[in-house]
Amino acid sequence: MTTSAKPAALSLDNIKPALEELLELRADKADIEKRIKELDVLVRPVIEGEGKMQLGNFTFECKLQAGRKTLDKALLSVYLEAGSKTLSDFEKVGAPFTTMSVTEAAKVL
User: Do 74 and 85 contact (CB within 8 A), yes or no?
Assistant: First the structure.
């Protein structure tokens, strides 16, 4: 019985350049994400104040979003022990928050 050899593309020697590039890209990604957060902190207050800003084909917009609804399990267990209630009695809403989106305008042909 013969065993088949691994294809050359899967050998460690052949993927070392890809691994090195992957490590470099991951480092770059971390640096880029850090810079994006820094710039987001800088521009968000201005965009929130303006509501919407246009830069070339891009629109920057901040909108206030409602907080998430979650189930308060601790409160639910207390009320379940005391008697029956409806699900809405156990819902709580988080604090409102803003989101920022960047969209590119559609290109006209």
Answer: no
Could you identify the residue written with the tokens 């207390």? 78
pLDDT tens, residue by residue, 38-93: 999 999 999 888 878 888 888 888 888 888 888 787 887 777 777 777 667 777 88
Domain boundaries in the chain? 12-104
Using the structure block, give the residue that is written with the tokens 């480092």: 27
Q: Are 60 and 99 in contact (CB under 8 A)?
A: no
List Cα–Cα distances, 28 to 17, 65, 70, 92, in angstroms.
16, 31, 36, 40
pTM for the full predicted model: 0.50
